[in-house]
Amino acid sequence: MTDLSDIEWRISNEQISYPDALSVMEHRNAAIHLGEQSELIWLLEHPPLYTAGTSADPAELLSQDFPVYKTGRGGRHTYHGPGQRVGYVMLNLKKRQADVRNYVHALEDWVIEALAQFDVSARAVEGRVGIWCDTPQGQEAKIGAIGIRIRKWVTMHGFSVNIDPDLSHFAGIVPCGISEYPVTSLKQLGIDATLDDFNVALKKTAPGFLAAIDKQA
């Protein structure tokens, strides 16, 4: 179960509204649990918006410039918008390792390995949500976010990675409750990658992610 042969790999090139994406996830979650549909990895892009996770602090929403959606995923406030690759991952952990912590670490490692395809040395940091790297100025910055929900052992939500978004849009929130560090993107790091380029990197590194959550791991 370490390849993508039984998983639908979907790429949406048009921007998907958050309510529409959430509706798809809700229905697919139930169908996967019942064995009626295959698992799904969905790569997409949202119009500018903020989401508020289950731990969101209203004081950390600094702007009403974009719609704000409450969501069942863990975490605090996150920005999504054009130029950002969002990955919604719907997998049945009952068929794999029913281990939430292992799943989160594997998801982090997948994003890190995909970024490594562009020679970005990214990492997870203990006690600090997200995916981190160093800017050319030597400052630590956040390049990706992780937020999941698991219902009936089927995963929902997933990750976002900044390819070339408008970074000023992050000023409307305290991203994931962390104000001491800036956000960055591949573009800001001097890497001219497209969303399609990052899709290829994700697909190339997906088998390692699946192996890490497999029952044989």
Explain the layout of strands and helices:
Elements (H helix, E strand, L loop, with lengths): L6 E9 L2 H16 L5 E7 L3 E4 L15 E3 L6 E4 L3 E7 L9 H17 L6 E3 L2 E7 L5 E12 L2 E9 L32 H19 L4
Parallel strand pairs: 1-2, 3-4
Antiparallel strand pairs: 2-6, 3-5, 6-10, 7-8, 8-9, 9-10
Helix pairs in contact: 2-3
In short:
About 25% of the residues lie in helices and about 30% in strands. The chain has about 220 residues and is α+β, with helices and mostly antiparallel strands. The protein has a single domain, classed as 2-Layer Sandwich (BirA Bifunctional Protein, domain 2).
Task: State the CATH topology.
Answer: BirA Bifunctional Protein, domain 2
- Provide the CATH superfamily: Bira Bifunctional Protein, Domain 2
Structural class: alpha+beta
**Distinct helical segment count:** 3
Main beta sheet strand tally, sense and closure:
7 strands, mixed
Rg, nearest Å = 16 Å
Indicate the percent of residues in helices.
10-25%
Q: Please indicate the percent range of residues in DSSP E strands (runs of 2 or more).
A: 25-35%
Q: Strands of the biggest beta sheet: in what spatial order?
A: 1-2-6-10-9-8-7
CATH-level-2 architecture: 2-Layer Sandwich
Mean pLDDT: 93
Outline: globular
| Intertermini distance | 11 Å
Number of domains: 1
Order of helices and strands: EHEEEEEHEEEEH
- The total strand number stands at 10
Spans of at least 5 consecutive residues whose pLDDT stays below 50 are none
| CATH uppermost class | Alpha Beta
